[in-house]
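Working notes for the structural subgroup meeting. M.R. asked for a predicted model of this chain before we commit to crystallization trials. I am recording the input and output together here so anyone reviewing the notebook later can reproduce the run.

Input as submitted:
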Amino acid sequence: MIASSRKTLHLIALLCLAAVGIALISQHVFNIRPCAWCVLQRLIYLVIAVVCWLGLLLDRIGALRRLAALVAAALSIGGMMAAWYQYSVAAKMFSCDQTFADKFMVGAGLDAHVPWLFGIFASCMDARIKVLGIEYAIWSLGLFAVLGVLSLIALARRD
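Returned structure, recorded in token form:
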């Protein structure tokens, strides 16, 4: 049986926060420095979590919960594209300076105002780290895919 859309949206938000939490532990405890594409994906995870919880907060309007699921699905696709680009293109470049992720994060001022979360401290080539033999970017790609599927389940589910 498929869980209710409320529970599914909560699960999506919690998975997003867990992903960012793991990234922060990796950075601040294990000294794995993030690149521009890494921190862009952190931002996408956080936006997905906020969208899901806003959809639940405004639950009295049932269409907003479905809209939140739809937006979360779209953001998950964006996250998959970012992770795939990081893995297949940016990680092979000597510098990801002046790529979309770098321009966006610097232009938004997030790297300067919240450096402990969005600071860019490595090139994409330097940020190629494997966990259990799989690069971080592929783990992120897989999680974004799971989030996308869960979002579609929440969208299709009528409580």
